[in-house]
Amino acid sequence: MTALLEGQVKVFFVTHLYELARGFYDRHVPNAMFLRAERQPDGTRTFKLLEGRPLQTSYGQDLYHEIFGDAIRMPDTPVDVR
User: Fold this and answer.
1) Where does residue 40 rank: exposed (0-12), middle (13-18), buried (19+ CB within 10 A)?
2) I need a labelling partner for 60 at 20 to 30 A (CA). Which of 8, 11, 69, 71 fits?
3) What's the number of domains the chain is made of?
4) Residue 48 lies in domain
């Protein structure tokens, strides 16, 4: 992407890779715009995009809970094999 930007090619991308987004954000690229999905303090989605810095968060876990319930087993949790 850096080569494209240096060549003044207009680039549009969507990513869930925080380090990638934060790297471009920290460079203060003058033509860059960073959008993220708005969330209410209680986690409710508004389905609006807002301009703002990249966040080091993952909202996938709430979707997992919504779909599969609380069936997440942590790596240190023993499995009951009775």
Assistant:
1) exposed
2) 11
3) 1
4) 2-68
User: Closest Cα partner for 8 from 28, 31, 33?
Assistant: 31
Two tokens, residue 1: 């992407």
Q: 25 near 52, Cβ under 8 Å?
A: no
Q: pLDDT digits over 10-60, tens only?
A: 888 888 888 989 998 999 988 888 998 888 888 788 999 999 999 887 667
Q: How far apart are the first and last CA of the chain?
A: 52
CA distances to 1, 14, 29, 36 from 9, rounded to whole Å, are: 9, 16, 13, 23
Contact predicate 8/1, CB 8 Å: no
β-pair partners for 45? 39
What's the predicted TM-score (pTM) here? 0.61
In a domain, 79, yes or no: no
